[in-house]
Amino acid sequence: MKRVVSYCVAIFILLSSLNASLMVGGGFALRYDSVFKDAYEIDLHAGDESYEVGLLSAFDKYIRLSGRYTFIPNRTMRMDLFSSYYHAFPLAGGTGSLSFNIGQDINLSGFAFNYRIGVIAGLNYSLYSDELHFSFSPNILLEIGYAIQDFSLLLYATGERFYETTFQSVPIIGLKTEIGFSDQRICLDCYVKLADYMEGPTILLSDIAMRVSYEVEL
Amino acid sequence: MRKMYLLLLITMLISCDIAIFDEKLSLNGENPFLNPMEITRDADEDDTLSFIVLTDAHLNREYRDSGIHRNEDNLFYFLDQNKDDIDAILLLGDMIDDGEEMDYERMHVFLDDLRSHTREDIQIIYALGNHEPNKGSTEEDWEKEFDISSMEAFIFEDTMIYKLNSAYRIFGSDQINALEYAMRENSEKYGTRYNFVITHVPLGAKGLDQSLFEFTIADADERNAMLKTIAEGGSTFTLSGHHHKGEVLNSWSAHHKEYIFPAFHGREVIGDLESEGWYHLVTLDQGTGEVTIKAYQIDSDNPSPDDPERKITFSI
After folding, report:
1. Which residues of chain B lie closer than 8 angstroms to A95, CB-CB?
2. Per-residue confidence (pLDDT) for residue A10, from 0 to 100
3. Shortest CA gap B211–chain A (Å)
4. pLDDT by residue (tens digit) across B82-113?
5. Three-state DSSP class for residue B93
6. In this structure, is the dihedral angle defined by the CA atoms of residues A96, A101, A107 and A108, taken in order, positive or negative?
7. Cα–Cα distance, B270 to B268 (Å, whole number)
8. Where are the domains of chain A?
């Protein structure tokens, strides 16, 4: 764990030396989910509009490393390549995933509509199993809300957890807001994950989380 | 227009009944897998346990879907001819299509038919599928209607049978922890050597058939938690359904195998994605740990235990 953190810090320092407008940030999250019950996460991330690397840790429960590269061909188009590795210690298993998505970030006088459509492939493994579990599926992310210069409030929904790793096939719905001032930004993100197969009127939630993060431009 | 969309969204959200997972899957400190119910048979029987296994009958679906095909007569003929050799019947869930009153009535008739063609006191283990708590019915309604629980344990000579609740495509930490504790305790207390785990939704699936991906446990953490629990619990055969096409053997480890059984009802659909309609005779040789699955197609007349359409054998 210490080695992983050291590597990440080294990567951050290297990136900051290469990029004049690097944003670095950290966050804290509370989760209540069907496997771990209470989980407390801290995360560190660095990047800008084109790339981001991240480390997330829920201490003795799980850890996740991630990297994203975004190609911006024009003002609204976006193409993302995202890779992540997740391991859960008490479960002795995890997931490696790779996704490619294409979409747009559209803003019409404050009304924001962002979407990504793509594919995600992942390999789940368990140290208690001889078999790997390969999954490949389409993926979609929709964000809709309000965004002006330094403020955004977006409601989002995704068929997979777009930038996470546990690779499930159930919807995640969230609300996030970002407030920026000078070279700093505060983000609040709340999401719920739906358990599946609710044919009746009851929506069953298998995961609830709230994340606060702070970013500063170096 | 934007205000109207926002208003519509808020209306939809506040009109939904939202529950958190532990409202459905909390055990409130109790462990349903301890103090298992004992299944008995004649003392002079050999070491081999024999089960009839059915899944996804979706009784009454034919009233809503004309493409459904079901043939119960051949199953009943098979039971009549072999009743003395069948020790118990395992129903892996989705035996009814909706949780409406007519579906419960139909299921009671089916259960009576199963008993009349085997033995009145035969043990029938009925697992909760995602269709049982459906269309206004609840899991509690189902439990009360059939006087059973969604999570139970049975002991049958050298074998423990654990019936799990996977109706919501998750198990929940309470159920996983309870199973882990019970597998350890029951094995020590009763000296059992084998486990059957019954779950409607399969743990997972291998290979490139991504239709299976959508019909297995949704969360990889839940799957890994269950694989660890079962691996530590000893030699285990997991029986699951839900997928309908099924016919998948997951060799999770040398001592843990899972078979995804195909549906009891047939349905013709383009792409060979549905079942042709099957029932199965599953045997466990408690002396060697060998499991044999014999599959019988519902439209095969005069079925014989020695002449299945398909046969799979493996060890746990």
Report:
1. 220
2. 62
3. 10
4. 988 999 999 999 999 988 889 999 999 999 99
5. coil
6. negative
7. 7
8. 2-217
> Residues with Cβ < 8 Å from B113, sequence gap 6 or more?
B72, B76
Cβ(B308)–Cβ(B294) below 8 Å: yes
Q: Tell which residue, B202, B249, B183, B224, has the closest CA to residue A128.
A: B224
pLDDT > 70: what percent of chain B? Answer: 91
Using CB atoms within 10 Å of the CB of residue B187, give its burial: 0 to 12 exposed, 13 to 18 middle, 19+ buried.
middle
Question: For each successive 10 residues of chain B (316 residues), what is the average pLDDT?
Answer: 53 66 85 95 84 95 84 92 93 92 94 95 95 84 94 96 93 95 96 97 76 78 94 96 91 95 86 84 96 94 85 96
Which CATH number goes with the domain that contains B92? 3.60.21.10
- The DSSP string of B266-279 is EE--TTS-S---EE
CA distance B309 to A145: 57
The HSE-up count of residue B137 (CA atoms within 13 Å, CB side) is 24
Interface probe with B: pick from A91, A127, A153, most Cβ of B within 10 Å: A91
What digits encode the pLDDT tens for the residues B152-170?
A: 999 999 999 999 999 988 8
Tell me the residue type at B277: G
At residue A103, the 3 state secondary structure works out as strand
Length of chain B, in residues: 316
Which structural domain, as residue segments, surrounds residue B63? 47-315
**Residues β-bridged to residue B129:** none
**ipTM of the complex in this document:** 0.85
Cβ neighbours of B232 in A, within 8 Å: 128
Contact flag B173-A36 (C-beta cutoff 8 Å): yes
Q: Mutual orientation of helices B101-116 and B139-146 as an angle, nearest 10°? A: 40
Number of domains within chain B: 1
For A2-217, CATH gives 2.40.160.40
